[in-house]
Amino acid sequence: MKTPFHVMLIPTLRCPARCAYCWSSEHQGPMMDLETVRAATDWIASLNDDPVTITFHGGEPLLAGPEFYEAALPMIEEKLAPRTVAFAMQSNLWLLDDRLATVLATHNVPIGTSIDGPPALNDAQRGTGYFERTRGGMEIAARHGVRVSVICTFTAESVKERDAIVRFFLENGYVMKLHPALPSLRDGRPDAYALPPEEYGELLVYLLDQYLAHLGRLRVMNIDDLVKSVFVRRGTVCTFADCLGSTYAVGPDGGIYPCYRFVGMDEWRMGDVRDAPTRAELEATPAWQRLAAFREYVDEHCKGCRHIRYCRGGCPYNALAPTGGEIAGVDPHCVAYKRIYDEIADRLNAEMFGEGGMEAMLAGRGRGGRPGIMALMQRMVSR
Question: Residue 59 phi/psi, 5° resolution?
């Protein structure tokens, strides 16, 4: 999360793409209007005066069109002044044009887009023509100075091509952020693509090794976040943070949810921005209470884990998806998180107390004199 207070605005759940493993989009549905944006901004202002990140997500947020963003972005900035407001967006970029790119650049809106690797591999998962359309949008963004980062979703199939995917990111100079394909609370369509937890853990260790082997040429944001959390002893992204009460999502109709993953699901709706519910009113909702119960479950179930402070049982949505919304376990990727956290912590301890001593650690040298965990930390600090 860019700031501890994070609100996701979902202009629509509609999306022109047909990604095989997607669980967050629909092919029809309402579009957020500016009155809803105004009400959402007033509600945000009533909650606190903390710095806030506003992320436009979906669905495909660019379906809202240039007029929407030309009005919405300055409105949000003005209504939330003098607090610091940071924007972000997640988009496939198919609809990006010069007009939209201009307004996004004016308001410093970085974009996360999705490419899963080389064209054939990507289009096998995301649909024929996806790769070229997204690359075209990236070129428009670059011309206008809009920063774009690339999210790579690893599925049970694509993980077999991990070497080719890493080569693709290296050759193109893209910063990688990865997502494992996940099951859904909505339906079972994505299940066949879901990346098994054990394989995800091995993938994370593999990417740590690749990152260190190509330090300066490859960057994997997830590895940065995992390493940082071990150092600061708290989760620094939403998967590993206790996000209840610091993250919200607003759906196209103004409904308030604990996260964008729950948008459109009535049992997870906590109110409406037009009613401007207070923090106390949100806390009294069944959705909030269920997530608070997950927090308590983690406190008890994970109390003996060395990583509990900065893992927090992983993502509540991931934990709820396999059980139809019942609290019966932590995030199923716990196996993967333990695998990578153990790897990072053990390597760091070896660097600090190993044969090379403090000199090797400060020089960032790990196994065999190659770059280690401290080298990653030093690079993060220098950015």
Answer: 50, -165
Q: List, for residues 21-31, the tens digit of each pLDDT value.
A: 886 666 678 99
Name the residue among 61, 376, 21 with its Cα closest to residue 250: 61
Query: Which residues share a beta bridge with 152?
Result: 178
Q: Inform me whether the pLDDT recorded for 355 exceeds 70.
A: no
The number of beta carbons lying within 10 Å of the beta carbon of residue 366 is 22
pLDDT tens digits along 155-176: 999 999 999 999 999 999 999 9
pLDDT of residue 360: 52
CA distances from 119 to 39, 133, 217 (A): 41, 11, 21
pLDDT value of position 1: 43
* Alpha helices per DSSP H over 82-192: 98-106, 119-126, 130-143, 162-172
Model pTM score: 0.92
Question: What residues have CB less than 8 Å from 53, skipping those under 6 apart?
Answer: 1, 2, 3, 5, 6, 7, 85, 86, 87, 88
pLDDT over 60 (residue 82): yes
End-to-end CA distance of the chain: 17
CA distance 21 to 36: 30
Angstrom distance (rounded) from CA 365 to CA 350? 10
List strands edge to edge, sheet with 52-56: 176-180, 148-154, 111-114, 85-90, 52-56, 5-9, 247-250, 255-257, 271-272
pLDDT of 85-107, one tens digit each? 999 999 999 999 999 999 999 99
3-state secondary structure 201-216: HHHHHHHHHHHHHCEC
